[in-house]
Design goal:
alpha+beta, 24% strand, globular, membrane, PQQ_mDH
């Protein structure tokens, strides 16, 4: 009897203590939230929870009735706020439902009272209602769009490709230099993709080094020519592999020496070129370097290597090496980083690169250069920040400091001889009061240059006076699309961080899909200004409504309440809310709704596969003062080594702190989904279907396979087999989906993060799908050094 009494005392004490603490937290937090304009629910809920605790303490069975009413009211409030969205309802109800179940356990309630049937019945109704609504919401996701793309007959006329590529090859970053990420192969198709299995696996041995910054990333998409696969590692070690077996043929190490001030250590890919003599299949002994691989290196070098042997091409630059730091105003390694493969024409290498974000007003130039494809001789320059962009500096001069840069892969139209570059913004990014008209002119624009001369053809600016780092982060895509009147229009699709996809006539830069100028919030920081309007494309994945505190989230009601309070304390008036000392919510966030992975376009069916994400950031301007000098410390060299946290922005009146908008538990404060896959009919520009992608398996302490829709880095690859492949998510999977409906058809567990865009090719009559699984340092996924190929099993 004594033991039972002691047990009941512990249960009673813990039960009442939980109710008191939860009620007090809700009441105090709710008062704070209500005083800054938020929901009053938490005051009412906290009071009801404290009343429940009081009645429990008095051993009054009315506690169950009060708590049942609290549960039902919370359920009704939750549905009123967010509808039947399970992941939005869960933090509003999870703790309360679990505690409700606890209260009706016999060993719990017998320690308090002998409740009547009415009290238990009330709790039963509340718990059953909660279970019913939550179960219904699991199977009726309001964020999902179900639909099917229109069918296309197998014998329908095929669009003429802009590049002549063998079906089984993948000779450029996006298969072609038009950025389509589409393969005509269909051996692997909708019906048999579930049978895919590992065909081979290769490990590069290139892992994070002690001298590396936090952001070491394996973002490579291999290229495949004939029977060989070419790929670079994060430290730009180039491997040539047998495409059928994955066995190494040769490797080349450029000897990159990193240090923690590098903002990135990454290589998205390499480029290929073959001279006319090499195209003759009967030529069994082509001259050295008649087939070449061009390798960009993060310390500002470009190598030309023989595709057969990996030997340097002696006629190119200095024994196969080109110094991209030549004429740069700042030559500190890591401040100028070519991270994406260059465009290669018959005569010209078009080279651009990244510069360190948010470090200083004295950084390298983002000058775009054209080099002779054979010798590496400089042919032309386009310096976006110069008064005369095409002027090549004299011997004693350099390119313009802090010119806008182009860090994502560019695309090329060989018929028009135009290269299209997605442009970034002049750094520092988050305050622009001292930018020159030249620095503003081409920032955050699509820039169209004649690939042979470097002369401007046209430009289109997607963000005016960019204060949010809303540059164009994705490789654009070129396609010929049939409009509503039956006319064929040569267009360029330019996905933006804002979620807009700008659709332009690639001959002129005129909008094909309207993008009207729209008023945006005003009120810049001291000494700065804000553009009155911004272009909003009508083909878009940007949020349809501004965020409110209803959209805040957490794993529980506790961190959701904290996120609501933080949200109400930030400055936020919708997209393009100016940066502030108060702290500004940036949504879409600095990572963007689109990143470097781009979209996949099937030019024959005229459809696109996209994988937008929705993850808010917070930017907070830090006025100069003690510990935040306007000039860098004497003797300091290199950048900040990171794109998040406190960024110095030397040379302007403010530093800035940039971080994802996270709860105290480290989870996004915005409710899921944070990532989708989606299909767009390009003839109508309508979203046909949209599905969440990714689970929290590798992001939570317990590996739960909950499909919430995860953030992504990497893009999709579609095929004629009506299936597309994507890694990218924060869980370690490669997935295959139906192009027509978005149905998940197959997935394979990866040994490390798959923050890379996959590719597919055919060799010896067999189709393979390949992805690099090496992880992403700042994304927090597991690091590795894997390259994995999948194929259908051999027919017996």
């Amino acid at each position: 009897m004594g033991k039972n009494s002691s047990s009941f005392s512990v249960v009673r004490f813990l039960t009442v203590l939980f109710a008191v603490l939860t009620g007090a937290f809700m009441l105090i937090g709710g008062i704070w939230l209500a005083t800054i304009g938020g929901s009053w629910y938490y005051i009412i809920g906290g009071a009801a929870m404290l009343l429940t605790a009081f009645l429990l303490l008095r051993r009054n069975s009315a506690a169950l009735v009060v708590y049942a009413l609290l549960l039902l009211a919370t359920l009704a409030w939750g549905v009123w706020e967010v509808g039947t969205d399970f992941w939005a309802l869960a933090p509003r109800t999870d703790v309360l439902v679990i505690f409700g179940v606890w209260l009706v356990l016999p060993f719990v309630y017998r320690g308090f009272y002998q409740p009547g049937k009415g009290a238990l019945g009330a709790m039963g109704v509340a718990l059953v209602a909660s279970a019913a609504v939550l179960t219904y919401s699991v199977f009726n996701d309001p964020q999902v769009v179900n639909g099917a793309l229109p069918a296309t007959a197998d014998n329908a006329p095929q669009a003429q490709p802009l590049s002549n590529i063998a079906d089984g090859d993948w000779p450029a970053y996006a298969r072609d230099q038009q950025g389509t990420r589409f393969s005509p192969l269909k051996q692997i198709n909708h019906d048999n993709v579930k049978e895919l299995q590992v065909a081979w696996q290769f490990q590069t041995g290139d892992m994070k080094r002690p001298s590396d910054p936090g952001e070491i990333t394996d973002e490579v998409t291999p290229i495949k020519i004939r029977d060989t696969l070419y790929l670079c590692t994060p430290h730009q070690i180039l491997f040539a592999l047998d495409a059928a077996t994955g066995k190494q043929k040769w490797k080349f190490d450029p000897g990159l020496k990193t240090n923690p001030t590098f903002q990135h250590v990454t290589c998205r890919g390499v480029s290929y070129h073959e001279f006319p003599a090499a195209k003759d299949a009967s030529n069994t002994q082509p001259a050295l370097c008649s087939r070449r691989i061009y390798l960009p290196v993060n310390d500002g070098r470009l190598f030309a290597l023989d595709a057969e042997t990996g030997e340097r091409c002696p006629a190119f630059g200095n024994n196969g090496e080109l110094d991209l730091q030549h004429k740069q105003p700042v030559t500190t390694p890591g401040m100028y980083e070519p991270t994406s493969p260059p465009v290669i024409t018959d005569t010209t290498i078009v080279m651009a690169g990244a510069v360190t974000d948010n470090f200083s007003t004295r950084e390298p130039s983002g000058a775009i250069r054209g080099f002779d494809v054979n010798t590496g001789k400089l042919l032309w320059v386009f310096d976006p920040g110069a008064k005369d962009p095409n002027a090549i500096p004299a011997d004693e001069h350099t390119f313009t400091m802090n010119s806008p840069n182009s860090w994502a892969p560019a695309v090329y139209d060989p018929k028009l001889d135009i290269v299209y570059l997605p442009m970034g913004v002049t750094t520092p990014d988050i305050w622009g009061g001292n930018r020159t008209p030249e620095q503003e002119r081409y920032a955050s624009s699509v820039l169209a240059l004649n690939a042979t001369t470097g002369k401007l053809v046209w430009s289109y600016q997607t963000v005016h006076h960019d204060l949010w780092d809303m540059d164009l982060p994705s490789q654009p895509t070129l396609a010929d699309i049939t409009d509503k009147d039956g006319n064929t229009v040569p267009v360029i699709y330019a996905p933006a961080k804002t979620g807009n996809i700008f659709v332009l006539d690639r001959r002129t830069g005129k909008t094909v899909v309207p993008a009207p100028e729209t008023p945006v919030p005003q009120g810049a920081a001291k000494g700065d200004h804000v553009s009155a309007t911004q272009p909003y494309s009508e083909l878009t994945f940007r949020p349809k409504q501004n965020l409110t505190d209803k959209d805040m989230w957490g794993a529980t009601m506790y961190d959701q309440l904290v996120c609501r309070v933080i949200f109400k304390r930030l400055r936020y008036e919708g997209p393009f809310t100016p940066p502030s000392e108060q702290g500004t919510l940036v949504f879409p966030g600095n990572l963007g709704m689109f990143e470097w992975g781009g979209i996949s376009v099937d030019p024959h069916r005229q459809i696109a596969i996209a994988n937008p994400m929705a993850l808010p950031f917070v930017s907070k301007l830090i006025p100069r003062g003690p510990g935040n000098p306007e000039e860098p410390p004497k003797g300091a060299t290199g950048g900040s080594g990171t794109e998040t946290g406190i960024q110095p922005q030397y040379g302007v009146p403010y530093g800035v702190e940039l971080n994802p908008f996270l709860s105290p538990f480290g989870l996004p404060c915005k409710q899921p989904a944070w990532g989708y896959v989606s299909a767009v009919d390009l003839k109508t520009n309508e979203v046909v279907w949209k599905q969440r992608i990714g689970t929290v398996r590798d992001s939570s302490p317990v590996p739960l396979p909950f499909k919430m829709g995860m953030p992504m880095l990497g893009g999709p690859v579609a095929t004629a087999g009506k299936v597309f492949f994507i890694g990218a998510t924060a869980d370690n999977y490669l997935r295959a989906y139906s192009t027509d409906t978005g149905e998940l058809l197959w997935q394979a567990r990866l040994p490390a993060g798959g923050q890379a865009t996959p590719m597919t090719y055919e060799v010896n009559g067999k189709q393979y799908v390949v992805i690099a699984a090496g992880g992403h340092g700042s994304f927090g996924t597991r690091l590795g050094d894997y390259v994995i190929a999948y194929a259908l099993p051999d027919q017996k």
